[in-house]
From TrEMBL:
Domain Metalloprotease TldD/E C-terminal: 227-458
Sequence segments annotated as region (Disordered): 172-192
SUPFAM superfamilies reported for this sequence: Putative modulator of DNA gyrase, PmbA/TldD
Any one Pfam family match given in the protein's UniProt record, by short name: PmbA_TldD_3rd
Top-rank taxon, per record: Bacteria
GO BP terms in the entry: proteolysis
Annotated protein name in UniProt: TldD/PmbA family protein
Biological source species: Streptomyces cyaneochromogenes
Gene3D superfamilies, per the entry: PmbA/TldD superfamily (3.30.2290.10)
Entry GO MF terms: metallopeptidase activity
Length: 464
């Protein structure tokens, strides 16, 4: 009998029954995906996949403290369930006391749909999108351009049960669309991406029209040297930079003097003004269109994430309020170490507080500057300042007297997102966006475009 013949909540309950440890957490993730891929204005592949992953966390009390053991496996059969539980218990008994040990979470109301069947996606999610994509192919072909890209939709139903009585469930849809338009000679390329929950709010024909304009801009090519330029960062580029900042905003690391958010003497920069613009950076599991898990789901411990926090409710959190640093990420354990409030990371990120102005309006108000499409290959250079380096990609455009006058070469950049927030002179309208670099890991973001008067293009890149 395969694991898929058992309902996920039954697998969770059975694993908890088998546990002989002092504490136990069981997480069942039911995943289904549907995808389309295309190249040269023609669909190439499509498919649907399904799978299950089971994670067991065992905790064992000892004289020196509580130890934990974590084991995750996919495609677990009924016969393999007890060995999996025993393996987690053995791992706990063989480990030393867990530094992040806390009592397992209690007193969280059960999800009313905990015993329901998992949600699943299928090719039906593309019922309206696929015909529109075919129309985009026809328009691109007639316009002398080629479209490449993919659409992916994933639905994960997570069932979380604990020996303290928690029975929680969350369904997470996640859709991404990435579209590249290229000239037939491959010398010009433009990119657009969107995140979506159900593909009902993405229009490939509108994206193709946007890319056609960008390819038109690229017909005039100019070369610029490295240097500091007034630069308009579109929402996707802002998202990539601030997601990395979010991942680096560990309260414990800051208190230990290891990050850009540190102050001497074991203090942090919480309460410090980071931007003169009234920008608020926040996470909210219930943000419309960007909904994410309303409780902690931790398959492992590390940094400011702890398996002992599984099931802990997540509240809306302002990381930055009107330019002032308000919170850093913490688990219950690291909050106790640092004296900071408990603030686990949620799975979305929103920056708002800018003006109700589109990117096109910001371009129209630019005397001379650069307009980026996106960033990629972002890497950390210096954690003490959060200096990042990376490359521009798929179109850097010169703006003169409020109009795009041509495409310029790509650049390598060196910038800190924290420093950029302090130097940004304008923020536009917040909109949902797909991070280009981190889209495989983090898709639920809403950002404005930012104007930076002196963005550091440190060297010229030969990339397309």
């Amino acid at each position: 009998m395969s694991a898929r013949t058992n309902k996920p909540h039954e697998i969770v309950e059975r694993a908890l029954e088998l546990s002989r440890a002092d504490g136990c957490v069981v997480i069942a993730d039911e995943q289904s995906t549907a995808n389309l891929r295309w190249a040269g204005n023609a669909l190439t592949t499509n498919g649907v996949t399904r799978g299950r992953t089971l994670t067991v966390v065992a905790t064992v009390d000892g004289k020196e403290g509580t130890a934990s053991g974590v084991v995750s496996r996919s495609a677990v059969t009924a016969d393999e369930l007890e060995p999996l539980v025993r393996a987690a218990e053995a791992a706990a008994r063989g480990a030393g006391p867990a530094e992040d040990a806390q009592p397992l979470v209690t007193d969280v109301p059960a999800s009313p749909d905990f015993t329901d069947a998992p949600a699943e996606t299928s090719s039906i999610v593309f019922a309206d999108f696929a015909p529109a994509l075919g129309e985009a192919f026809a328009r691109a072909r007639a316009g002398g351009r080629e479209l490449y890209g993919f659409a992916n939709h994933e639905l994960v139903s997570t069932y979380l049960g604990t020996s303290t009585g928690l029975r929680l469930r969350h369904d997470q849809p996640n859709g991404t669309l990435e579209l590249n338009a290229k000239s037939p000679d491959r010398t010009r390329s433009a990119w657009a991406g969107r995140s979506t929950r159900d593909f009902k709010d993405v229009d490939p024909t509108a994206l193709d029209a946007e890319l056609a304009v960008r390819l038109g801009w690229a017909e005039r090519r100019l070369e610029l040297p490295a240097g500091r330029y007034e630069t308009l960062l579109p929402p996707t580029a802002v998202a990539d930079l601030l997601i990395y900042q979010y991942w680096s905003a560990s309260g414990r690391d800051a208190a230990e003097g290891r990050t850009v958010f540190s102050k001497p003497g074991g203090r942090t920069r919480v309460g410090e003004k980071l931007s003169e613009l009234p920008l608020t950076l926040r996470s909210d599991p219930n943000e419309p269109g960007l909904e994410s898990a309303p409780f902690v789901i931790a398959h492992s411990s590390g940094g400011d994430q702890s398996v002992f926090d599984n099931g802990l409710p997540l509240a809306p959190t302002e990381w930055l309020r009107e330019g002032e640093l308000k919170h850093l990420t913490t688990s219950r354990h690291s909050a106790g170490l640092t004296g900071l409030p408990v603030a686990p990371a949620a799975d979305n990120l929103i920056l708002d507080g800018g003006e109700d102005r589109s990117l096109e309006e910001m371009v129209a108000n630019t005397e001379r500057g650069l307009l980026l499409t996106c960033l990629w290959y972002i890497r950390e250079v210096d954690p003490a300042t959060l200096l990042l380096t990376g490359l521009t990609r798929d179109g850097v455009y010169l703006v003169e007297n409020g109009e795009v006058t041509g495409e310029v070469n790509n650049f390598r950049f060196n910038e800190s997102p924290v420093d950029l927030l302090g130097r940004a002179s304008e923020a536009g309208r917040t909109e949902k966006t797909l991070p280009r670099e981190w889209g495989d890991y983090f898709t639920r973001a809403a950002m404005p475009a930012l104007r930076v008067p002196d963005f550091n293009m440190s060297s010229v890149s030969q990339g397309v």
